[in-house]
């Protein structure tokens, strides 16, 4: 093979195994990245993409090791370097941008310290280091004054934190940069800004990039080349447009079709509202202590209808759904359910009212009691709200079936389930009591895109069976896939409310227009051809 | 942060007051008549009656308490029944001895156990870690006077004869070695274990991984990135342990025959010397509260969120997030209750 001088990263047949089980976490992976180009490394969680990313910095997580293969960065074989040389390499030749800047920035250190120490081994004077730090901060559109540098990470917003992380990676002018899902925790608007920054920085610096993500839409937007990982294997690799146009591997196809389309025909059009909707919220205002979070909220949900609450983090959408479910008490205004007013606190609602409104939480990893079997998780609320069932197995089996899980899952513990399966169990637990309204609070945001699509299908089926849904999300693309009507929340107020088709095609409010513009619009061309 | 410290200080004073009530009530509930105790068995009824008047024993309990509390606030702890000396004077030298003992134990135990804990975390699941964890477990499960006796047998006159095992007024500084070592060994195990656990958690955190991926020297990673984040939780345990010293000295002083507050307390109980018992118990409680307060302050100071938000209440983030995110990149607006909840 001829050596291309523009090749920054070359990985040959890399295999990483776990210790002591000797399971291969990634097997015989080979990739190359050229200067100034970005490789999108796509796969679901557990596919080994982060392990691969870290091995590019000669770092192995606990209890893993490189079994064979080689990694060359800038022509240097990482395996041959001493510990000291590896330290010199990191930050200078390769830099890493972490998934969650909130946990990757040290909470106890000022930004100044964390940014300047990335230049630890450069032969620069103190003043030169400070100047370089300021320069990079300007490049990522952050202030470069002393007041900003004296801040701690918790004093920044999520987007600012991620831009600090980007600045930290670029400050040493690395040849290669590894980005591990850097936008996962961010809103679409923030994500759009961060992606633009990354694209501009790699171009200006001529840096090669490896962008790890499970979201095909983001990668399609950003990467020159795409490599798809599935269960530790590299199953497909090629130029971005080619992969998008003609995916060869079955898994790639699935990934592509899982991406929710921004503009679809929706899931049925909104019908004329009935006389009396199932849930009617009027003039609701809520807050925490003296902080007002919601103001003048009017929303209604009819039987068998899905209403989406769309907004960024901090817009108050979770507070609203919690108020409806009786979990948040500090609100004023009227909440009518089936014509009857709902008490503010769930303690004061009748068992019947509580049975008919069920809640599914955002993070399935935290919402299930790890010590209880699936069966007991499902029967718990049922026994409490409906009474002791004559045939508990039938109740569990029916709930699992409605959540598209086999009845055999009843005997499992949560740790024996994948993220998507856990969320299905949460849904099964909610539908077990046969509610009329299900409040879904960002229930797909902790899941991979491919799993997300399955959950959306499941919710549509439930809705076809007559269930009303209040679907809280920050993902505008999901809205058109599931909801009939959408309420767009911005800073505690509903700025737009109407049928999904109308809001998506002719958004009336500036904020909605911005949201739509910031969302990567993605339509796999192969789907159209089929 | 000043406000938080003030609140904690207030709670400390409240606790101390509650302790004073309990102490006073307990000594009231003790069987026996104070006047009889003071005057002995052969006192005439007239003299006893006169003394009762003098001691306000005829007054209602609440008045007696108020009187006692008032004296207490003026620094007058009363007069010892057994030797007729003002309690404050009488306690001066024993208190000094006890503080020396506790101070030495704290000075040895804290840094050593922090180092052992941190090193165990670094050497997780290797020889050193296993040895340290076994050692601390054994030490934690053996009462401190047994440790003291073992130390005396091993290093005292009966064994290697390196240090004296009994205190004497003329003794040199080496007589402090065994008692303070005993106390140090008694307080160290939980600190070691907490430091190890916290350090492991911090070392597994993403910001430590990020620091390593920046290519920083392992020592910098450890002391600049890991240690400051481990201090908060560990400080609490150190405080609990050092506060325990205040009570723990009692047995150790008895064992090594050191004239400290512990020994005074034992003698006081034997002699039913109520003012002395009250004073010593209040003193021990005071030390307990003070040490815990210090730990709270250190814990708060180690947490930049508290440190910064106290000085400039909520302003930095609000203004900052708005002014610099005008390009629309605001993540969490200031009003976000979740972010607030975290900061509190």
Description:
- The complex is a heterodimer of chains A (530) and B (344).
- Chain A has 530 residues and is an alpha/beta fold.
- Chain A contains 21 helices and 20 strands.
- Chain A has a 6-stranded mixed β-sheet, with helices on both faces.
- In chain A, a hairpin with a 2-residue loop joins strand 9 (225-230) and strand 10.
- The radius of gyration of chain A is 25 Å and the shape is globular.
- Chain B is mainly alpha-helical and 344 residues long.
- In chain B, 75% of the residues lie in helices and 0% in strands.
- Chain B has helices spanning 2-29, 34-39, 45-54, 61-73, 87-122, 127-141, 144-155, 177-203, 206-213, 218-256, 261-270, 274-301, 304-311, 315-324, 337-343.
- In chain B, helix 8 (177-203) packs antiparallel against helix 10.
- The radius of gyration of chain B is 26 Å and the shape is flat.
- Chains A and B meet through helix 2, helix 7, helix 8 and strand 12 of A and helix 9, helix 10, helix 13, helix 14 and helix 15 of B.
List keywords for this structure.
heterodimer; A: 530 residues; alpha/beta; six-stranded mixed beta sheet; 20 strands; globular; B: 344 residues; mainly alpha; 75% helix; 0% strand; disordered C terminus
